[in-house]
Amino acid sequence: STGSDLSLSDLQGRWVLLFFGYTRCPDFCPLTLSDYRQVKRLLGEQADQVVFLYISFDGLRDTPELLANHLAIFDPEFLGMSGDDQTLSRIQPDYGFYYRRQLISESPARYVVDHSTRSYIIAPTGRLVASLTYQPPPDYTANLLRDFIAAATLTAQP
After folding, report:
1. In the chain, at which residue ranges do the beta strands (DSSP E only) sit?
2. Which residues contact 103 (CB under 8 A, 6 or more apart)?
3. How many angstroms separate the CA atoms of 49 and 37, rounded?
4. Calpha distance 41→95 (Å, rounded)
5. Distance CA 107, CA 25 (A)
6. Could you list the pLDDT tens digit for every one of the 158 residues in the chain?
7. How far lies 117's CA from each of 3, 11, 38, 50, 91, in Å?
8. Across-strand partners of 125?
9. Alpha-carbon gap, residue 8 to 126, rounded angstroms
């Protein structure tokens, strides 16, 4: 969504709340992004330690500009990335997600993407620490992030 190349490793040093979806999704994705907006609000100042990341399954249509405009509806600080099928297939085993394009007309440009709906929490070290089922209450996700942040702070102290 920034128009420049970015990888997950570039975000090390901050917590990441991650969701895979696509901008034309009619249901799961906008609801999840709305929940992320609430999580960010509930975290207050601690939200500065978290990157809210949305990775698109639809790299063919989800351009950086489209991602930026779409995410700005929810929060202009949310970060978006889009992956091509080769990249997504390479990281799929790490997250266990799935996606599949389905034509909805005779035109190859008209399709929907069936996809999994889990959210993921990644530690500042880049390690996946939690996988959340679809749409946990925002206060649950915020409290879980707070607990991870607090535990990391305690273990980092001499």
Report:
1. 15-21, 50-56, 79-82, 99-103, 111-115, 119-122, 128-132
2. 110, 111
3. 15
4. 26
5. 18
6. 777 788 888 888 999 999 999 898 888 999 999 999 999 999 999 999 999 999 998 888 899 999 999 999 999 999 999 878 888 888 888 888 888 887 777 655 577 788 888 999 999 999 999 999 988 899 999 999 999 999 987 776 66
7. 25, 22, 18, 20, 16
8. none
9. 8
